[in-house]
Amino acid sequence: MKKGMSINSLMKHMRTNHGMEDLRGSDRKILLRNMGYFHGYKGFRFVRKPKNALPLPSFDALMDIYGFDSAIKAAIYPEIMFIETAVKNIVLARILENIEDPGLATFLKRGLRTCRDVNGRVVNGQMGEKLKLKSQLQNIVRRSYKNDLVKHYVDRDDDAPVWSIFEVMTLGDLTSVCRWLLDGIFA
């Protein structure tokens, strides 16, 4: 594997090979380091595929794109967080209305649809997917152990309640849960 470049070597490479002559000095070095080479320069060099190269004639042009990207994220992030929280709480409310105990073990046993057909046989590939979801939820508990919402229950050797897991799960985790919810949960 090729050894990575130092920040000074990287700046020289960007000046020499990519025409960014204005990438000089300690203030620019700090900007590049804070932006992150892969997030910033590599990420903004092209659109989706390297053949769709963006003409970046200078470091200032790169900083303009980086600033625009950051401004868009800052503008929509609060709205996305609001929507994420609302969706998580709607799903959680429906789950808790349909299981008698809010613990993770009960949810895993009674809150998810079966992966068996009408004859009781496991449908091809579904058990592995369901086990993957169970592992994903248990990993959320493990990763979030330091969070007081989860730690309180785990330290008592209790089952972490589903609501505490929903507080710390990602939107991707929620999508995985929704794929396995009981069919009538939103009826």
Record the SSE blueprint.
Blueprint: H1 7-18, H2 26-35, H3 38-44, H4 59-98, H5 104-111, H6 126-143, H7 148-155, H8 162-168, H9 171-180
Helix pairs in contact: 4-8, 6-9
Structural features:
187 residues; mainly alpha; elongated
Explain how this protein is built.
- Helix 4 runs antiparallel to helix 8 and helix 6 (126-143) runs antiparallel to helix 9 (171-180).
- The protein starts with 6 loop residues before the first helix and ends in a 7-residue tail after the last helix.
- It is mostly helical.
- The protein is elongated and about 70 Å long.
- The protein has helices at residues 7-18, 26-35, 38-44, 59-98, 104-111, 126-143, 148-155, 162-168, 171-180.
